[in-house]
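Try this one yourself first.
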């Protein structure tokens, strides 16, 4: 499967809302273990990431409406809205069966954004 073969809504979600593979891996981990309270140290250990990076992921997932912050500050649980939860469930199945295509699409999006950012600083002879 290639990115062009993916359902449009999933391809669009990946391109617009999944900034990195660790972000997707965090979603899938939290999705598999729904009801678990997640903190940066716990997520960092599970995904083999530095704690500050895990804290950034949790904050991003919170701002994306995928997790909610618990009463205990710094603790999050997987609780997306129903429509988003269904999309994320489909994304989990797609990732499980087409890991390379999904990661290639994520990386192409990251590369494209980096190129656009760098291009903004290129001097032009206009």
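Now uncover the answer:
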């Amino acid at each position: 499967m290639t990115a062009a073969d993916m359902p449009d809504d999933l391809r669009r979600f990946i391109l617009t809302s999944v900034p990195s593979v660790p972000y997707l891996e965090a979603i899938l981990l939290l999705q598999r273990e729904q009801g678990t309270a997640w903190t940066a140290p716990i997520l960092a250990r599970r995904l083999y990431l530095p704690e500050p990076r895990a804290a950034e992921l949790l904050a991003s997932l919170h701002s994306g409406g995928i997790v909610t912050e618990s009463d205990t500050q710094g603790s999050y649980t997987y609780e997306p809205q129903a429509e988003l939860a269904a999309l994320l469930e489909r994304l989990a199945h797609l990732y499980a069966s087409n890991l390379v295509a999904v990661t290639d699409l994520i990386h192409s999006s990251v590369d494209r954004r980096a190129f656009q950012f760098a291009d903004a600083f290129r001097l032009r002879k206009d």
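Discussion: The first helix runs from residue 8 to 17. The chain has a mean pLDDT of 86.
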